[in-house]
Amino acid sequence: MKPDPGHADTAALRDYVEAVAELLRVEPAASWSEHGSPSTAYIALADRSPRHAGRLLMLQWAADAGWCLALEPEAAEEPTVLVRWPEPRRPRPAVVARRVRAALTELARPEKNTARCGHPSG
């Protein structure tokens, strides 16, 4: 019996996503990928966003859009994208991990207050 023609591409995508997950210290079971048109992937992060009421974070990848860091959706909502990395579409796993760690560091910093004290808004 011959293997599915897309088997090699499916396995390569799974290995790529699991390599990214491993660099982020995420178990392979917390990642998912699907080879298709477009191919997509997901990695559940254990990290929470202090800027968004402690909501869990996730990574999402699509062959036509690249990687993004987003809030895990609640109920039927769509994921809220916090950071996009559209280029290159499929960077080395170490590049993805470095970008994610930098974004997590930025999210951990207190937000800059843009309102000026003593001046009413509106």
From TrEMBL:
Residues 16-101 form the DUF6292 domain. It comes from the Bacteria. InterPro entries: DUF6292. Pfam families: DUF6292 (PF19809). This is DUF6292 domain-containing protein. It comes from Amycolatopsis australiensis.
